Amino acid sequence: MLDPSSLLTPSASDAENEQKWTKILHKVSKLKGDDRTFFESMVKSLRIDEWLARDNQRQLQDNRVLTLGGGNTGKTTLLKQMRVLYAGGFSSDDRTEYKFSIYDNVLDAMLALIKGLQILAIPMESQFQSYVEELIGFAASNNAAPTTQVLPHSFAPPVIAWTDDKFQCHVYPLVKTLWAFSTSIRTCFERRNELPFPVPDCAIYFFNEIDRISEPTFTPCEQDVIRMRVKTLGVVEHNFVIKSQKWTFIDVAGQKSARRKWIHLFDGVSGVVFFVSLSSYDETYQDTLPATDSFDNLDEAADGEESPKSLLLTDGLELFESLLRDPHLENVPFTVLLNKFDLFSTKIPLRPLRQFLPGYIGDDSDVGASATYIRNLFLERAANVDRKVHVELTCATHKPTIEQSLNAGLAFLQEMRQNAALTPRASSSRSAGTIRRGDNAQRGSAHQHSVGSPPISASSSPRPSISGPSGTDAQQSSSPPRWAYESL
Ligand SMILES: Nc1nc2c(ncn2[C@@H]2O[C@H](COP(=O)(O)OP(=O)(O)OP(=O)(O)O)[C@@H](O)[C@H]2O)c(=O)[nH]1
Ligand SMILES: [Mg+2]
C-alpha cells in the first residue's frame, strides 16, 4: 500500500519534483478500484497545493516595490537614502556630478521667488532692483533651452550650461545678498504656498549653505545630495540587499501627466510605498514636467496645468484611493509614508490646518493632532475600499527617521504577503490579478475544493493599522513624535 506521507516529501528543484510526482503517479496507476480513485484525487490535490506553495515562495523572494505618489513628495529622496543605507552611499565622484544640479536648484529657487514678487504684488526694494535684473539677465543669456523663456507667465526654470565660474561670479553674490538682506524676498518665501508654481523645498537649505557651495573646492556632501531636487523622468529601477533579502525598488515621475504610464508597472509588483507630502496641505500648484521631459507626448504635460486647482494633499488622497481601487493592485499591500513632517511642523503654527481642511477641529497649533487628522483621512480612504494599510509619519531627509519608517513599512508589506501566501484563496487571486490571469478560475476552484479551508484575503480586515514612526500608536496621542523637533 502507498504511504500518503511519502507524497509530501519536499524536493529541491522543479526537475526533482517532477520526477517525484512521476514515480508516485506510476505507483498509483498500479492500484485498483477505490484505492486507485482515492490516491488519484489525493495526488491531484497535493500537486495543486504544492504548486501554489512553490509559486508563493517564488513571489515572496521577489520583492518588487513601486514607489508611487505625487510629484515632489520624496520618492527619489527615499531611494537616495536607501543607497546611503544599503549600497555604500555616494562616492566623491558621484557627488561631484550633482554639483551643477545644486547650482540649478539655487538659481531656480531665487528666480521663482523673484517671479513670485510680481504675482503676489510685493514691491522689490529699490536698492535690490539691479540685483534682480542682473540675475534675470544672467539666466536669459545663459539659457540653453530654446523653448523655455526665463520668467514667462508662469515660471519655467532656465537650462544653464554651468561652469563653476558662472555660479561663483554671477549667481553667488546676487543670491547671497537677496536672501540675506531683501525683506521682499523673505516675505515672498513665507507666502510661497500662494504661488501657482513650486519654490523648491531645498531652497532654504541651499541658500543657507551658499558660502560653502560657492567655494572653488566645493564637493557636495551626502546631505546636499539628499536635499537636491531633480524631477524624475521615466522609470528608474534600484536594487538593494536588505538583511540578506533582495529588493527592487521602482521610482517613477509623480506629476499628473506621468501617472497614466504607471499602469505598465503594476504587473508582478509585491508592494507599494505610497508617498504624500504632509506639508502640501496648503499648496495648490500643479507640478508639471519640464518641456524637456523624456515622454513622447508633451501635450500630456499640459494636462496638469489645465486641471482645476485643488489642494495637493487632496490630490494625494484621491490618487491613493484610485490606486487602492485599481484591479491590478487588488492584492498588493500598501505602506503610506506621510513625508516632510519637518516642514509640516514649522508650517502648522503659521498656517493652521483648519484654514485648508475645515473638517479639522483640533487645536490650531497642535502639530501632532494635525498630522493625526491627515493620517486618519488616508486610513478612512483605505477603509472605504476595505483595505488594510500601514501609515508612517516621516521625514525623508533625516536618515534615522526614514530608516525607521522604511523598516516598519517594509515589515508590513512582507507580513501582508506572507499572510496572503499562507492563505490559499488569497494567493490564487493574487496570481490572477498579476501573473497568470488565465489560470486563476480553474486553479482557485480546484484548490478550494481539495483543501476545503475558508477563504481569507489580504483585505479581510476592514480595520486599518495605525502605528507611529517609533512603533507607538500615534493616533492616541496629540503630541508630535519625539523626532519632530530634532534639528533636521
Ligand atoms: N525638508 C524636507 N524636504 C524633503 C523631504 N523629503 C523630500 N524632500 C525634498 O523634496 C524635494 C523633492 O523630493 P523628490 O524625492 O525629488 O520628490 P519625488 O517624489 O521623487 O518627485 P518627482 O520625481 O517629481 O515625482 C527634494 O528637494 C528633497 O530633498 C522631507 O522630509 N523634508
Ligand atoms: Mg523623483
Automatic annotation (TrEMBL):
Q: Where is the composition biased (Low complexity)?
A: 450-471
One annotated GO biological process: adenylate cyclase-modulating G protein-coupled receptor signaling pathway
Its domain of life reads Eukaryota
Sequence positions that bind Mg(2+) = 76, 232
Keyword Glycosyltransferase listed? The answer is: no
UniProt keywords (A-Z) are: GTP-binding, Magnesium, Metal-binding, Nucleotide-binding, Transducer
Q: Name one GO molecular function term.
A: G protein-coupled receptor binding
Stretches the record annotates as Disordered: 421-488
Where is there biased composition of kind Polar residues?
Answer: 421-432
Where GTP is bound, by residue?
251-255, 339-342, 396
InterPro entries from the xrefs? Gprotein_alpha_su (IPR001019), GproteinA_insert (IPR011025), P-loop_NTPase (IPR027417)
What are its GO cellular component terms?
A: cytoplasm; heterotrimeric G-protein complex
| PANTHER family the record matches | GTP-BINDING PROTEIN ALPHA SUBUNIT, GUANINE NUCLEOTIDE-BINDING PROTEIN ALPHA-5 SUBUNIT
Name the chain's protein: Uncharacterized protein
- Species the sequence originates in: Capsaspora owczarzaki (strain ATCC 30864)
